[in-house]
Amino acid sequence: METRSSAPALTKVLILIEEEATAGLTGQKKCLSHLSAMSSCSIRGRGHPILPPIPSRSDQTFLDSIQSYILTEVEKVGCTEQGPVEEYYIIYRHVFDKIIEHVSAYKNILTSVKQEYDAFIEALKDNHRSAFYLHGKLKALASEPTTLLNYRKRAFQLEDKIRIIERNSAKIQNLIMKIRDIKKVPSKEALTQRKQLNPAKPIPGLSIKESLNLDTLSRHLAQLEKRVLELKGDIITKYIPQESRAVLEQELKRSLSQRDEAEALNKKLRLRYSYSRITLVANAVSAWAKYDKNTSLQELLSQVMEQEKVGEASAVSSISHVFEYDPGKSKEAEDLLEYIERFNELFSSGQYEAAALYAANCPRGILHNEETLLKFKALGFIKGKILPLLKYFEALINSSTAVKHPLNAAMTLEAIKCALSEKQLNLVIHWVTQQRLTFSEAIGDVIYDYGEVEPYSKSTCLALAQIVYSQCNIHKKAALCLCKQGQICGAMDYIKQLKSFSSDDYIFLLTNCASIELICCLTEEWNRKPASLSIGAIVLSLISTAHKQHGLHLLEEMSEKRNVWI
């Protein structure tokens, strides 16, 4: 009877569990509504209404315990609405197990139903996992073309990088081979081989017009042949092969040992000679003491010394010549020789800047000569570096200033030409303003001509040339520089301070800077001093010389100015 009365209630619970399992296991409110509706639900069959069964007290108690269990577990899960599906599924599975244990008559059927539900839910889970996996795989397949493109792009980039690295490696390898070839000592066969020249290339040092002139080519050929002979002579007299250096060092050591032996022998001979003279004097004194004291000891010694001089004059003179050896001078000569060899090593190894500093600071100025100058001048321009000749002059002028012994005029002129050829006007300004040069008229002319070639630097060059001319007492050119700068009044003050400014100097000034303002200053009083020239003398002087045009031009300007005054 208990089993029959609980069958309708169990049916409703199974329906509730089925709905929860298939619909996603709804929340607490839905479960409570189903459990409350379970008591008032009517079962319909074949169109006739049937009264709801009346549950027994034990079924009601069981349903209440099930309801309280569901509420308690839902609260433990922590969801008031629909929570995680897995947790709800576990809760209702335990509820199903309790119902199976409670209803023993339907235990087998309910167990089979529960197994089917579990199998169905596991199938749903497997399908969900498969769908998630397939979705990820689909994403991966969709991104494969983009990934492939990225890989191809990266492959192209790496190939380009490999090609760049290979090119750089080839360049470095070629550079290493060139350096090895340069350091390698050339054989005699290689030296005898002539370099093949391209006849289409221009001749170095000649323009196209000069290279087509037979006379110019003949002169250039003669210069080259002369230079070849000089180089051959230098190879024989000034340079030696690198292989002979060890032999020369051995010879130097042998010579030094011979010198030391000669010095020791010289010292012994000095002592022996001194001992012989002392012995001679001692014998004379003892003879004087034993035999004859009529003559004084001083007279006796003087006679003995005269006899000794007469008897051994030649020997004494030769010995004294040997004894004049000075070890200090020998040591200094060795140091100078080593200094020159060190300079040649630096120069031959391509360390031109160090060689320039070494030559400029040499002792006694042994490398301040034309030969060293020609060495640096023969190098010419080196790409990416300062001209070695300019570095040599710069170091030379600095060192000569430090020892307060300036360069001679010829070396100074070469230094100025070199600096101006390299557009180093600032360096020339420094040298001139710091009074580090030996000034000459030629130096002033070079600076003046450079200002004519470079209009932007003309005012600076005129000022520098004026300083040089003033130091050299070339007053007419100094005044000309002032006039060229527009300082006519300054030039007049400078001229009036001089006593040796001749009429030829005035004509030179007017010829090179003919202006009405200058003529007016020369033909009028200046600072209460009489006029230097008359207008007639100026015009006649200009017309009578080769500057006739200047005189006529001045007459025209004076005539125009006179008409304006009138």
From TrEMBL:
Coiled coil residues, start to end: 214-272
Keyword Coiled coil carried by entry: yes
Keywords, alphabetical: Coiled coil
InterPro entries assigned: ARM-type_fold (IPR016024), Clathrin_H-chain_linker (IPR012331), CLHC1 (IPR017212), TSNAXIP1_N (IPR032755)
Residue span, Translin-associated factor X-interacting protein 1 N-terminal domain: 67-180
Protein name: Clathrin heavy chain linker domain-containing protein 1
Classification lineage: Eukaryota, Metazoa, Chordata, Craniata, Vertebrata
